[in-house]
Sequence to fold (300 residues):
Amino acid sequence: MGRKTKVNMKSMTGFGKRESLCHGTMVGVEIRSVNHRFCEMMVRLPKALSQMELELKEQIRRTCERGRIELTVIMNGGGSGTNKNVQLDRAMASRYVQGLRELQREFKLSGTVDVNVVAGFRDLFSTSEEPTVINEVPKVVEGLVQRALTDLEKMRKKEGAALQKDLLQRVQIVEGRLHVVRQRIPLALQMSADRLKARVAKLLEGERINDDRMAQEIAMLAERSDVTEELTRLQSHVAQFRSAIKSKDPVGKRLDFLLQEMGREVNTIGSKASDSEISAQVVDLKSELEKIREQVQNIE
Fold:
C-alpha cells in the first residue's frame, strides 16, 4: 500500500459559530472567511465592546494568514447598559457669575448670586451616555471567538484536504501530457525537417546545390520548432508545484506564481511547435492549468 500524503493545505473558505449565556445575556459569535489575496478583516461589535476590536483582530491573525475574514458579535439581553455623565461648562459658569455680580453692582440690586441662580442656566450643563458591559462578557466573547475560529479552521483544513487531492490528480494529468510531448519531440523535429526539405526541393526545381549546406540550413530551421528547453523548464515548475502542494506552510501565493510560469512555458511551446500532436497536447495542458488555477485561488 502507498503512503498517504499528510494534509497540510488549507482552504480560505470556512465558517464558525458559537453561543453562550452570560448573566442572562445571550452572547453570539459568527465568523466566516472567503478567498482574498491578503489578510483582510472586518469586525462588527456591539458599541459596548468596541474597545475589543484590535484584540480580536490579533486573535484572528494568529489563526488565519490569508483571506477575507468577517467576525460578528451580538448580545441579546441585559449584558450591557449605559452610564449617564453630566458635564459642567465651567468657563461659561464663571462668565455668568461675573456678569450677574457686575449687573448687581451697577444697578444696586439686592440678593445674592448663589447656586440656585446659576443652576437656572441650562446651557451650563450637558449630559452624555457611555455604554457599559458586565465584566465577564469580554472574557466570554474571547472564548467564543477562539472556539468559532477552531470550527473555522477545521472546515478550512477539510476543504484544503479535498483541494490537495484534486490538485495532485490534476498535476499527474499534466505530467502525463508532458511525457507525451517529450516522446513526440524527436519525431516532430524529423517531420519538420522533412517538410522543409520537400519545400526547398520544390522551390529549386531540380537545380543543383550543396547537399551538406542544404541539410545544415534545414536543420537550423527545424531547430526553431524544438521545444526541449521549454519542456524542461515546464517539468521543473511542475515538480516544484507538486512539492509545494505537500508543504506545511501556506503556499497559495507560491502556487499562483508557479502557475503563471507554467502558463508562459506552455504558451511558448504552443507557438514554437509545428506538430499537430504537440499542439493538441498544448490545448489540453492549457485547459488543465486553468482548472488548477481556479482551485489555487482558494488556497491559503
In short: DSSP finds eight helices and six strands in the chain.
